[in-house]
Design a protein that fits this description.
CATH superfamily of the largest domain: f41 fragment of flagellin, N-terminal domain
Mean pLDDT: 91
Number of domains: 2
Helix content: 55-70%
Distance between the termini: 22 Å
Oligomer: single chain
CATH topology of the largest domain: f41 fragment of flagellin, N-terminal domain
Radius of gyration: 39 Å
């Protein structure tokens, strides 16, 4: 039926063209954002899952920061503890030299001065072994705890080791001297015992550091997997979107032509009235 009031062909052509334009807009958004699901209206269920995973990634970022801080605290402590161990070895050397009964008083005084300087350096080293206000070696801290999970209810604990002079690990007195052969002999045995205890404490601290480092590596891998999972859920396949864009642009051009042909159809009615 031919009618100038109703052009059914133009209606269908317009509907198809509008649908193509809508699909083309969607593809362009996918290409511009790189996402096939950019918001709840695209796919509410998948978007919600992706949002929860993004929340976990952000939480693990805080966990990583906590682990990094704890690792820095432990690394600082290990560096200072190693320095104390080296200082004790030097002090033992001075005590051994001062133990010699044949040296004169001037030499013994020189050895004692070096011994005292090394002794005092241990205290200074321990005082400066803090990172971000946390010191694991001078008795001011019992332990440091790092976040271990995204919920914030699990921790990795590093126990402090008090390496202060006159303590339970380094038993050498903070007032120790080697001004006599007897004092030097006593200092040697005390330093040897202190070195053994100190090296054990540092080994334990190193084990704690390894524990923190291993968990930090695990968290980094876990974050990578979460981000990959989010990408699988919401990222657009740009190769496919590019191909789809080309097809829709061609379809759009054909739709415009079809609409033009449909709009021209009523013109044929004029031929029926020509004489």
């Amino acid at each position: 039926m031919l009618s100038v009031n109703t052009n059914y062909g133009a209606m269908i052509a317009l509907q198809n063209l509008n649908k193509t334009n809508s699909e083309l807009d969607t593809v362009q958004i996918h290409i511009n954002t790189g996402l096939k699901i950019a918001g709840p209206k695209d796919n509410g269920a998948v978007w919600s899952i992706a949002q929860n995973m993004r929340m976990d990634v952000m939480a693990f970022s805080a966990v990583t920061q906590s682990l990094n801080r704890t690792m820095s605290v432990v690394d600082t402590s290990l560096a200072a503890g190693t320095t104390v161990s080296d200082l004790l070895k030097e002090m033992k050397e001075k005590a051994l030299a001062a133990r010699d009964p044949s040296i004169d008083s001037n030499s013994r005084a020189a050895y004692n001065a070096e011994f005292v300087a090394l002794r005092d350096q241990i205290t200074k080293t321990l005082e400066n072994s803090a990172f971000d206000g946390t010191n694991l070696l001078n008795g001011s801290t019992v332990q440091v705890m790092a976040l271990a999970n995204a919920e914030g209810n699990s921790f990795i604990t590093v126990t402090a080791r008090n390496l202060s002079l006159s303590g339970t690990i380094v038993t050498l007195s903070s007032a120790a001297t080697i001004s006599t052969a007897t004092q030097a002999s006593s200092a040697i045995s005390t330093i040897e015992a202190s070195l053994n205890a100190l090296n054990l404490a540092l080994a334990q601290l190193g084990t704690d550091a390894k524990k923190v480092g291993m968990h930090r590596t695990f968290v980094a891998k876990l974050v990578d997997e979460l981000e990959s999972g989010i990408g699988n859920l919401v990222d657009a396949d740009l190769a496919r979107e590019s191909a789809k864009l080309q097809a829709l642009q061609t379809k759009q051009q054909l739709g415009i032509q079809a609409l033009s042909i449909a709009n021209a159809a009523p013109q044929s009615i004029l031929a029926l009235f020509r004489q």
